[in-house]
Target: PLP-dependent aminotransferase family protein
Amino acid sequence: MHSLMPTIDDASDVPVYMQLYVYIKDRIGAGQLKPGEKLPSVRLLASLLGRSRTPVALAYDQLVAEGYAVSRPRSGLFVADITAHLPEVGQPAGTGQTPPLSSRPQLADNRALPPRAYHAADAAEADYDFGYGAVDLSQFPHGRWRKLVGDCFLPENGRTLLYGDYQGDAGLREEIAAYLLHARGVRCSPAQIVVGAGTYHSLDLLLQLLRPRLGEIAAEEAVNDGVKSLLLQAGVPVKPIRLAPDGIRIEELRATSAQAVYVTPSHQFPYGMTTSIAKRMQLLAWAKAQDAYIIENDYDGEFRYGGKPIPSLQGLDSAGRVIYLGTFSKALFPSLRLSYLVLPLELLADFRAMDHSYDQLASPIFQSALRQFMRAGDFERYIRRMRIVYGRKQDAMLTAVREELGERAEVIGQGSGLHLLLRDRDGRSEEQLVAAAKSARVLVYPTSIYALAPELAAPGTVLLGYGGIPIERVGPGICRLAEAWGR
Model:
């Protein structure tokens, strides 16, 4: 264990826990720390380094979150096998012990979807709304944003009021590329970015772009309901792939003939798990071997509490097989309607060759304001502030659930994002839970609408968002919910 002795640079701007995390991660990746090898305890490594336990614990938490290490109760922390079950390049789909497609879940013929349920349309509908679609605007710099938008109407900025570049404002794309490299580990040039008018708009454009290449598309078993609508309208068969605690089941994906797969690896929606590094490498190997694409939706990747946000899958891709999809709806506010695609070079050429029926994809005014907001550093400062705000809200919700519901409800998906799932242990259905809460003027939301196949829907499970509810109302809201569910 004494061989694990990183050099910590106290003069560096990089936090100690991040230096330690990178050191251990790199040694695992290089094979210098072998699978199954036990890492020193937090106490021992802190003592060897002459540091407090906090940075060591944070580094270990990050390694576990990304799948580089596994924790075994009462035994300690061990190096994970990040290359386990990697297929040989060129391995045909369907090898291994995966059940045949005919025995796995298929999409229902009825493609009608219920109205989207993100949050109440009217505050009078409930006393406590745990909707997922709302965000906290109490910390938003309204005055600064108002000035940036107003500047677009100055005479010298008149071009902002005309039609814009259909790929997006060049300056904004530069800012997005720089931010993504720093914050999400995405490697791209501004030329690879296409700015869109919201996630669904960008995904719709992408599916149009991919359609000539697709005979079949795979997706995680549960997805955002808007994404579900678009997949069902894509004009090709959609194969739902079941989820494991560390992400999508690769063996099921290999059994398909899909030319693309839709995933949310940093924070699965709605179940909240993170795809492990081993699964990420298997996913990339599959895409390379099958000449397929991975659509990575990083819808709220900035918001992880207790450690560094999980790096993107795109940053690990060396073969140009990952298409990265991001949005500013959760980071700023939903009505901004600004999103972006990062296209591999091959698809970028196809995008530019498309017959476009538009002059721009998103408002040049908002693009200009956001460009200035990012260039001045306001965006990253705001993200740091909101990570603290949302982290405190999640802590408040977890504490209230533990105190008010105890063992009656299982919490799913904590640690990141802007929502949690609660699974009822008393055997009640989703419909009963939602209806009982509503009768007490508390809004919680169904999860069955996210399942690609009805039999994949989690029983007795509801979604609670905490982004838009004031922190002082979280506890009372959960107390009311517990009463409605018969505390």
